[in-house]
Each structure stands twice: as structure tokens, then as C-alpha cells.
């Protein structure tokens, strides 16, 4: 039986991600996400604080899901109470209004992190517990990377299929 893999074996370094300040607009987040998508890097923005001491403190994340669902959050909440009512031009209207929101209003806050020296199973546990796709990876008190469900699922596929998928 192979030895348990560690988080550091699967994490991506911080230089794979872009940053945005929590007080920036959703429109700016969309602009940055579009740039990230074109560059072929991971479509996840780290949300950092405004103050000088908060520049490298990751407060949350914005992914394409937050950009889509964050734009129409007030509609979605109303639809849960009374059922959905759709009208022509609704999506465009929601987008035009939602782009004025601040990133802090739509971001997914950091709810947990994992140490790079922890076993991979601990990351799987935390991802499942909090229903998230990624976790900050820390070494002492510094964020040194990110572990994403995609890297873990590729490894699980290798194990389950008995093949080497990654190089």
C-alpha cells in the first residue's frame, strides 16, 4: 500500500492566482477574471484586504460561480420564498445592477485552511465539511499555496483506475 500523500504534493503556489481587493467592484472582478481565463490560469481570484497589513491576508475567493450567482443574489433569495418569476431582459438587468456591488459582497470567505505538512485526507475532510472546492495551504502563519479539488480528483482517478494520469 502506498504511503499517504501530503497536501504539499498537490498544492499550487500562489503565483498561479490573481488578487483583487475586497472593495473593488464586481465589474473589476469580471475584468480580471476574463484576463485570467484568457491567460489559461486557474479561474479563482484571491480577495485581499484594503489596509497595508492586509495586502497578503486572503479574506476570501471569487470564482466564476460567485460572479454568476452574486449578480443575482437578491433575485435568487426572493425566488426561494415565492418561486421564480422570469421576464425578458432580466439577466441583462441583473448584470448591469450587480456589477456595481463590491467584491466583499459576493466572495466566498475563508472558512478553513490546511497545513502543507498535513495528510491529503485532511484536505479532503475539510473540503467536504465546508462544501468548498479549494483551501488555502499554510506553513506556520503564511499562506504558501492553494489545494483544489481538481488536483485531488485527478489523484483519486489515478488510484481508482490504476494508471498514471499526471506527469
What name is given to the CATH topology? CBS-domain
- Our Rg estimate from Cα atoms comes to 18 Å
CATH class membership: Alpha Beta
- pLDDT under 50 segments (min length 5)? none
Question: Which percent range describes the beta-strand content?
Answer: 15-25%
Distance between the termini: 21 Å
What gross morphology would you assign?
globular
Q: Provide the CATH superfamily.
A: CBS-domain
Biggest sheet character: 4 strands, mixed
CATH architecture: Roll
Please write the string of helix (H) and strand (E) elements. EEHEEHHHHEEHEEH
- The structural class is alpha/beta
Counting structural domains, the number is 1
Mean residue pLDDT? 84
Spatial ordering of strands, largest sheet: 1-8-7-6
How many helical stretches? 7
Secondary structure: helix percent: 40-55%
Number of strands: 8
Features:
single chain; 167 residues; alpha/beta; CBS-domain; four-stranded mixed beta sheet; 8 strands; globular
Written account of the structure:
Helices cover 41% and strands 19% of the residues. It has helices at 26-39, 64-71, 73-82, 90-98, 103-106, 120-130, 149-161; strands spanning 12-13, 18-21, 45-48, 58-62, 108-109, 114-115, 134-139, 142-148. The strands form two sheets. Strands 1-8-7-6 form a four-stranded mixed β-sheet. It has a four-stranded mixed β-sheet with strand order 2-3-4-5. Helix 6 links the parallel strand 6 and strand 7 (134-139).
Amino acid at each position: 500500500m502506498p504511503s499517504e500523500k501530503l497536501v504539499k504534493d498537490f498544492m499550487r503556489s500562489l503565483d498561479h492566482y490573481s488578487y483583487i481587493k475586497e472593495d473593488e467592484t464586481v465589474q473589476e472582478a469580471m475584468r480580471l477574471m476574463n484576463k485570467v481565463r484568457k491567460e489559461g490560469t486557474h479561474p479563482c481570484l484571491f480577495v485581499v484586504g484594503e489596509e497595508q497589513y492586509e495586502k497578503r491576508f486572503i479574506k476570501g475567493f471569487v470564482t466564476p460561480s460567485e460572479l454568476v450567482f452574486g449578480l443575482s443574489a437578491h433575485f435568487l433569495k426572493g425566488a426561494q420564498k415565492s418561486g421564480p418569476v422570469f421576464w425578458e431582459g432580466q439577466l441583462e438587468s441583473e448584470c448591469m445592477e450587480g456589477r456595481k456591488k463590491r467584491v466583499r459582497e459576493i466572495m466566498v470567505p475563508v472558512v478553513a485552511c490546511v497545513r502543507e505538512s498535513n495528510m491529503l485526507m485532511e484536505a479532503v475532510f475539510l473540503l467536504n465539511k465546508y462544501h468548498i472546492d479549494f483551501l488555502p495551504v499554510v506553513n506556520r502563519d503564511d499562506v504558501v499555496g492553494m489545494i483544489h479539488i481538481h488536483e485531488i480528483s485527478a489523484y483519486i482517478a489515478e488510484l481508482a483506475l490504476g494508471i498514471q494520469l499526471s506527469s
